[in-house]
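USER:
Before I trust my own judgement here, I would like a peer's view. Write it directly below this note and I will take it from there.

ASSISTANT:
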Amino acid sequence: MLKIGLATITAFVIASQAASADPKFERTLLRLAPSERLEQLCAYATMVNVRKDARKFRPDRAVANAVAQATTQGNTLKTTGGAFRSQGKWYAISFTCTATPDRLKVVSFDYKVGAEIPSAKWAGYGLWN
């Protein structure tokens, strides 16, 4: 099993780099309730930033509450128990994601990538391949 050292990576995302980079994604966000919109926007920011900053990962899915429940305060979503999938494997991630009041753009995103999550734990966390 591949172990990833816990590295702190901070990224401040300019709005045009997050949701606005894909107008189709923004239209999809507009169809969601604000609470779901924040979670989906932050999942998208997770994939964009991990792909850009840690080039060995190619995330195609991200969830904020895989291992522990995420919390929302205002327009900020925080999790210490998130996960993202890259090349068929799931990895732990913690992040703080702050969005604009309409929850359509990320204004700051701070994250830490953790270890690979063993496939034997995926079902218990609601993860899939």
Observations:
- The CA atoms of residues 31 and 129 lie 27 Å apart.
